[in-house]
Amino acid sequence: MPPAARPVCLKHPNIVCGAGMYRRKGIADLLEAFALLPRESAGTCEFTPEPTLYLVGDGPDRAAMEALAAELSVAPYV
Length: 78
Hints:
Blueprint: E1 14-18, H1 27-35, E2 52-56, H2 62-71
């Protein structure tokens, strides 16, 4: 039987997505999922992780994605 998995603690977790800013690309879904990530340690790490989402790309829905990030209160991390 394999040993129990240990939580992975990253000091600066990063997520990178390269895609055109079109709704059909799922950027809104990514932002909504990113908003669910904890911004505080759950007691498994000695530090508070600050995940960052890097969106590489441009397109006609960029302004809408920026507005959604602000609405989800994750704009400072994107």
